[in-house]
Each structure stands twice: as C-alpha cells, then as structure tokens.
Amino acid sequence: MRSVRARAALGATVVVAVALIGAGLAVLLVLRANLTDQAGLQAEVVAREVAGQLALDVPYDRLETHDEEDHPVQVTDEDGRVVAVSKDLEAISGTGTDQVAPVPSPAAGGPTGSGGDDDGDDGDDSAPGRGEVDSGDPDFGNGTATVDGDTADYRFASVRATTSAGVTLTVHAGAPLAAEQEAVGSVRGAMLIGLPVLLLVVAGVTWLVTRRALRPVEGIRREMAAITASEDLSRRVPEPGSRDEIARLARTTNETLTALEASVDRQRRFVADASHELRSPIASLRTQLEVGAAHPELLDVPGAVADTVRLQALATDLLLLARLDAGERPGRTTLDLGALVREEVAQRTGDPVVPTVSVPDSGVFEVVGSRGQLARVIGNLLDNAERHAHSAVTVSVRGGRGGVVVAVTDDGAGVPPQERERIFERFVRLDDARSRDEGGAGLGLAIARDVAVRHGGRLSVDGAREGGARFELWLPPAG
User: What is the distance between the alpha carbons of residues 446 and 452, in angstroms, rounded to a whole number?
Assistant: First the structure.
C-alpha cells in the first residue's frame, strides 16, 4: 500500500480487530466459566441431597431427586457397579461408567433397617447408627445423558457417602449445560455480527480522519512539486494554522527553502564575483602575451609573472572556499598557536611593514585543528593588516575567555563600525581598499572567518587604541 491513509486505516482496523477479538474471547471464557460453575453448584446440591439420603440408609429404590429430567443421578459402589439411577435415565457418559442398569451389590445389598424411612431424619449425619456424607469438595466433570429420549450435555458433581453399614457409595448428579451453551452461543453470534460492522466503522472513520489530517501535507507536496518544476525558490509552502507536527513540518520546510534560496543566491554571487575577479588578470595577461608575440622587445615579463601569481593565489582561495563549502572537516592535530604565529611572522622579514610579535615565553597555547588552515588564517590577517597599516603591525597571543586569543592590530584608518561585519563577506572590499589594493580579491577575511568557525572559534574586528583595526581570533584550547 502506497497510501498513508490506507495504511493508517488498515493498521487501526487490525489493532481494533485484535483488541476486540481478544476481549470477546475473554468475555466468552469468563461467561462460560461462570455458567459452568453455576451448573456445577446445582449438580453438587442434588448430589449432596441424594448422598444425605444414602447416609440415612434410604433404600435405593426410594431415593428422591427433584427435577429428574434436568438432574440425572447415578449411584455407584466402591467397585464401580451401578446400584441406583434416576428415573427415565437411558444413557450417561462422563461419570466413570456408562452403565444405567442397577446391579445388586454384594457388599451393600441395598440400604435397609431403621433408617429406610422416606421422611429421613434431619439429625446429624455423623450420629451413632447413621452414615455420613463426605464434606470435601466434590469432583466435577462434563458429560452427556439421555433422559426419556432426550440427549443433552451436563455438568456432573460426584459426592461420596457412607452408609451406617460402612458401605461407601458415590453419587453422580448432573445439571444441564443448555443455558450455558445458549448464552455463549448468543454472545458469540452477536460478536460475529457486530465485529465486522464495527471494523467497517473504524476503518471508515480512520480513513476520513486521516484524510482530513493529511490534507495540509498534500498541499505541501503540491507546492514543493511546483517549486521543483519552476525552480523558483522564492515560493513557500502553505503553513496550517494548527500547532501540530504538520504545521512544524511546513515551517521547517519553509526555513529549508529560505536557507536553500540564500545558498543559491550566495553561490550565484560567488560565481559572478569570481568571474569578475578572474577576468581582469586574465585579460591583462593575454594582452601582455599578445604584445610579446608581436613585439618581443615590449614583453613585460615581470607584469606577466605578477598576473600569473595573482591568478594562482585567486585560484587557491577559490579552491579552499569550495572545500569549505563542501563541508571539509579540519584536521585534529594538536599544535602550539604561539609557535605558529612566530613562524608566520618570521617569513615576513622583507615586508614593508614588519609585524611585531608579543607571545609570552612561559605560556603554551595549544589548540586542535588543521595546521595549514590556521596558518592561512594568521597569514590572511597579517596580509590585511600590512595592507592597511601606516607604519606598525602588532601580533599578540594570550590566553583569555576560556581559550587562546590571537590579536592582530594595525595603525591604519580602521574599519567603520557599520562595515565591521560586511568585510567578512566574500569579494567585499571597502572603497579605500579598492583604491590602494592592486591584488586583493576580497576573499582573505572571508576565508579566515570560515576556517575559524569550522574550528569552533570566532573572528571579530574592533577599533584599536592606535586608531586602526584590531582583529581577534579566538580558538578553544586543546583537551
């Protein structure tokens, strides 16, 4: 089944069916047990009544039983011989013997003597000269009996009695199970008729309720299909007014579409900006090569080399950004950030503005990450500071705010407060930077922040006391 509604309706129907069948079987079992116990109690009463007469030495042929058609009685001796049966009993089963014809018992010979009075005696069964009735729980069993041509099922109770002569007899008395069978049959029939109807109602109600509940989902699906067909990421799926899971699904879908739209727009701007940035050095290099081909003496080799280096640096930046956007995870190497800063500064001895390093000798500033990427961050910050500094660049490393902080300060013009977040966007250069920078593409700070964030850190900019900009890189400590 591909339909959620069909699966929900089928599942609900199956669950209800199992529950109803289980409950119905339990009801039938309890009902049958109760009615069977009632029939057993009736049989026990009759059996004890007959056993009491035997204990009073009432003769076998003068035993009295009420409702002989409903309560057949069979009396057997210790050897299992039938010594007495109720009137019109033609066949019996379930009592240990199926004999219904009394056989004279040599041991008993039939109760006789002073106790053979029909009226009996209401005195104590255990009185001297009297027999007794077993007071224990009787034995029960099911069987059949044919009385005056009618065969039916009965619940039999077996009670033992001892005559005054010491003869032990067993009275088997039955109570009909017709009422139990009729009641159980009626309940079972009602269940067999009502169960399918109830299941149809459950299936129908579940189908309608599920259909109504999933209607917003169908609306979301149709809108998503339309968005996919039109490739218009500015569209949004309808959000129902409810506060249930479907409403949260719609809101999450719209949030995903918003993030996807922003990602696609960012990618488009990235491609457009990259194409624009690549166009200038490529055009310059082509022009120089064409001139050199026509007039070798006019070939500007240093300019061609500079343009090639610029293209190489730009391609490297674009490749790194592509890897970061693809979710490349940084390495897990433990390194000393203070030593890394010293190494980066040591490579800039020939720069116009040589950075001043301030790293405490007693401190160990270990972080976990990619050595190459973190060196790139520090290098980009130094490049940016040297590009805007008038005469001084300072680099310091210290512990602070539960991590390691690298601060790069210059004495340049600084960054206006309203531009301090914008400069971390890709291909963004402020107007003064555009006028002074001949090689930057506006990717250095964007790369630095992306790498810092992926290492669990932060990169921010603020004003310096010297009047320039102060960039702070914070990274969590190792361990």
Answer: 10
Question: Does one domain contain both 293 and 385?
Answer: no
Q: Is residue 69 part of a domain?
A: yes
Distance (Å, rounded) from C-alpha 206 to C-alpha 337? 64
> Distance between CA 89 and CA 74 in Å, rounded?
9
Can you tell me the distance from the alpha carbon of 410 to that of 389, in angstroms, rounded to the nearest whole number?
5
Task: Give yes or no: residues 33 and 72 share one domain.
Answer: yes
Q: 341 and 283 in one domain? A: no
The full 3-state SS of 438-461, as one line of letters, equals: CCCCCCHHHHHHHHHHHCCCEEEE
Residue type for position 167 = V
pTM to 2 decimal places: 0.51
CATH number of the domain encompassing residue 241: 1.10.287
How many separate domains does the chain show? 3
Find the distance separating the first CA and the last CA of the chain, reported in whole Å.
52
Crossing angle of helices 301-325 and 245-294, rounded to 10°:
170
Q: Are residues 393 and 309 in the same domain?
A: no
pLDDT tens, residue by residue, 284-343: 888 888 888 888 877 778 878 877 887 887 888 888 877 877 777 888 889 999 999 999
Q: Which two tokens stand for residue 88?
A: 């019109």
b/e map of 350-367 (b: 16 or more CB within 10 Å)? eeebebebebeeeeebbb
CATH code of residue 389: 3.30.565.10
Give the whole-angstrom CA distance, residue 264 versus residue 258: 10
Instruction: Give me the domain span that covers residue 386.
Output: 329-475
What residue has token string 């269940």? 191
Residue pLDDT, tens place only, 180-205: 889 999 999 998 898 999 999 998 99
Buried b (16+ CB within 10 A) or exposed e, 223-237: beeebeeeeebeebb
Produce one character per residue of 320-349: b if its CB has 16 or more CB atoms within 10 Å, e if not. Answer: bbeebeeeeebeeeebbbbebbeebbeebe
Q: Which single residue is written with the structure tokens 């064409």?
A: 290
